[in-house]
Amino acid sequence: MMWKSAVPLCALLCVSAVLCPVYAGTINVPADQPTIQAAIIAAGPGDEVVVAAGTYDENIDFIGKAITVRSAGAPAANATITGNGSGPVVTFANGETNASVLYGFHVTGGHAVNGGGIYAWAASPTIRNCLIAANQADGSGGGIYTDGPRDGTYYPNTQIIDTQAHSNTAGGNGGGIFCAGRDVVISGCAATKVSSAANCVPAAGN
What we know:
By secondary structure, the chain is mostly beta strands. It is built from 2 helices and 23 strands. It has helices at residues 9-19, 36-42; strands at residues 26-29, 48-51, 54-57, 60-61, 68-71, 79-82, 90-92, 101-103, 106-108, 111-112, 118-121, 126-128, 131-133, 136-137, 144-147, 158-161, 164-166, 169-170, 177-179, 183-187, 190-191, 194-196, 199-202. Strand 1, helix 2 and strand 2 (48-51) form a beta-alpha-beta unit. The protein starts with 8 loop residues before the first helix and ends with a strand.
């Protein structure tokens, strides 16, 4: 007599998913994906997008993903993202947290209403070891713009660490960095024209 399993296949699959850990992966640009944005789209939570030295003519959006996008080399000048005047070079606008990390890039050539270089709305990314230069905003935040709705929603501090922001321009406030509507911690940075309409807090000693 043949006995049928009393455990449905779907239950076995669920147990397997729990017992088998999912490890973060590395996606190399351009070896694995041709562009930084394509790599971001392909990435899963905790993945690392590693970008080879060179100039990348694109505008990138983290699309809410908790991933690290970093240059393969240490100096920010090794990998350049240039927006060619067609909006913010880098966008965080889908609830990103400190787990969304931009590391080691030269961000340049952006032109937007707000946030020519980096635009963060209702998000709290980590920006580390970057050079943000020669970007333009018609409104505020030529280099970096961080803001959000005044609806009482709590967002963790945006982290801007070991980053230079200079030679950026804005028609309104904050040619270098503009922060409003949330707390921003700036540590070990060199920035010109910083404007705050909320809490733009340098870390101790900076």
